[in-house]
Amino acid sequence: MRPFHFCLNFAVSFSPLIVFARRYPTLAVVALHLLLLAVLTSALYAFGIIRYLPGNDNLMHLDVYWYDKIRQEGYSYSTTTTSSVAFFPLLPYFWRFTRLSMAGMSVLNFSMFLAAFAWLAHQLRLASRLSLLLLSTPVLVFMAIPYTEALFFVFGSCLLLGLHRGRMGWWVIGLFGCGLTRTASIMFVPVLLFMVLLWAAQPGQARRALRWGGAGLLAISAAVSIVAYMQWKQVGDPLAFTKVQKFWNNHLRWPEYPFVTPAGIDMLWLDALALCLGCGALGVCGWLAWRWLKQRRLPMPQIPPMVLFAVGYYALLVVYIISHQGGSIWNLSRYLLASPFFVVLVWYLNTLPAWPGRYYAYLLLPVLAVWQLFGAFTLEFDNFTGGQAVWYFGLLSTYLFAYLMLRQLPWRREIIMLLYVFNLVMQLHLMDSLLQGYVIQ
Predict the structure, then answer these.
(1) What SS3 state is found at 142?
(2) Does 402 fall in a domain?
(3) Element holding 122 (H helix, E strand)
(4) Which positions, given as ranges, span the membrane (predicted)?
């Protein structure tokens, strides 16, 4: 066969894939991610860099135990120690309904997450490279085990896209589903009020904002009422999920210095990044509150309600974690980065005009202040020497600013792919650690 004919036949054989990629770019990105994930997993496993793959015999770790316990036995409650009432019912009862094994539920969770991400990315018209990068976020490892992250992502995407597309049905279903999935959804109430207040301040939006806010409050109230009723019927106390929190070391107190995470160095950089983003969201909320007070002289910025909700959720969750975990930021990256709110904030940041370089110089000082909360520059960081700590947080700052500057970096494509590969390796490393029983949440 002549070389030209060979090349022509080779190209024709791939033409359906090319047509599919052009017609369904988001699905093509998800398929490419799955292919790269499978290739990298098999390579690292073959060379012994990762030693475990998920299965029924190694997934019973951390909170999976409690979800499985609720699935099989229903709720139990103790007034002297930890108990299952700290967890909301949608995942374990959905798991019971499917009758899937632990590995089967993991596959279903991961599939639901990918479907929700594809839907969210398509509706936001997210760039393919940015979608690929977001799919590699290391803490998305929790989407592939029997945790609530996947269901929370599905319903969180629903409520955000309801705001984005003006679909109140999506908004109500999303809030109701989140309210049945995770205790953190109780914090949606002040976030919703914050969003409605700023939304109503925009010209001609007051009536609409109040209508959506009222529907949202009803949805959250209905979900929490169902959880309270279920626990009242099973354990005799409708507020058991709030009373048991103290046994999980989750109660109001002053934070301790330096900040730590029991998950160790493998997760600390991710929790530190989440803290940095949460502090940034807190600053944005403060600025928006100031603009709201000055709205008679300064017009309110036209920020989409979806973004207001995401920023408010980030800010409130950081305040809650800092004030209730005594300096431990355990789980912060899981709550903030493994969520549709992170996708929305990254998307919105990349729709804004590029900042002048001096803005990033101004931003560096508060970022360094956040790192110092971990004792980064005072020889108090996890037994590191001063030089090691500076190097660690220098790399962390580079990673953070690479994300923030993606809009204007000259080698944007290459940097995205470098970040993607690094993230994917870390994702597989975290999964390997989790399957060995190490605490990484």
Answers:
(1) helix
(2) no
(3) helix 102-124
(4) 31-53, 101-120, 132-163, 169-200, 212-232, 272-293, 305-323, 335-352, 359-377, 389-406, 418-440
